[in-house]
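Final report, Chapter 2: Outcomes

The project's central promise was a pipeline that accepts a single protein chain and returns its three-dimensional structure in a standardized token representation, suitable for archiving and comparison. That pipeline is now operational. To close this chapter, we reproduce one record exactly as it appears in the project archive, with the input sequence first and the structure output second.
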Amino acid sequence: MSDFGYLDEKSTYFDSACQSLRPQPVIDALNEYYMEYNSCGERVKYEWGRKVDDKVAESRQAVLDLLKLNGKHYFVSFTLNTTYGLNLLLSQLNLPVDKVITSEIEHNSVFLSTIEFAKKHDIERVVLERQDDGSIDLDYDFARSLVVMNTSSNVDGRELKNIKELVKKVKKSGGFVIIDAAQTLGSNYELLQKIQADAICSSAHKMYSASLGIMVVRKDLLPYVETDFVGGGMVSSVTKDSYTLLGSDHAHAIFEPGLQAWGEIIALKTAINWLQKAKKTSRVNEFAGEIYDFLQKQPGVKVLNKAAAPVISFSHESLGGHSIAKALSDEGIMVRSGYFCAHYYLKEKLDLPHQVRISIGLHNTEADITKLKNVLERIFN
């Protein structure tokens, strides 16, 4: 694609599940901030700062619009990444729950933070299985529970197909739902639209924007937040031994202590606009099917996926995952190898060797797919 014209012809990138490449308009938006109005937001009255405030507000609204959520009920805060957002929430929430529920195919950002949440509040922690299509069994008793779960797996692309039904059941039973959307917003944001979760955490750098964490939080959750991570930009007044947090009209500030990544936040709106247009002509699913079918036919290859997806993981009976990744790298092809921060599921439960992960992005072309297949065929043989 022309928006990725800066790519070297010899460089073929298949690691979008880690971080997507940035299209030129996003790079331009970020550079424009640094070169034309590089200033603080929410703190100054001069022209540059006012422009920052306006554009940051536009990015917050763009996130809500993408998810089709109402600003009357939700606010958007920005942080470092999905992991940071999840920990920021879970470390400060004091909820009326008896258990925390997650699933077996979670990234460590969810798996570890729910371990700590259960320990801190001395409650039960439940790890549920996910069905082959990514759905969760809704027959489980979700009463008085906090459910923390991904909507797309970073190891095999499985999606939480019945998320709408899950959220409704948990909320109806008096529970709470926090969603890890890191792998979803850049590939299938439609899955999350109008979902009334209590919080959605994601990463802008997995949706073709600059490095940034996104938190979409329901305002009803605020009474359960016991703020202990504090700093500048969060308060309306300070005395010798106390302080008063900003009101509900600045709800986002409760998770934004200190100076923020204004340029990265501003670039996010450009990325969202670009993503929505690029998806209309996307061939990602077509490419996923092509790679999946190819791998299924290769002797000695075991594909982890049950179906084609933008994220495909596999292993070889006689070649190590890291060795395959290094051999691909020698040909200019970049993939991920290892356990992809999903150690429990891949290493402990399935007892698998290091995997090779191919994650497809909107920048990839038919030529990339052909090159990948040709090189893999040589490596396998």
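Archive annotation: The two ends are 32 Å apart (CA to CA).
This record, like all others produced under the grant, will remain available to the consortium after the project formally closes.
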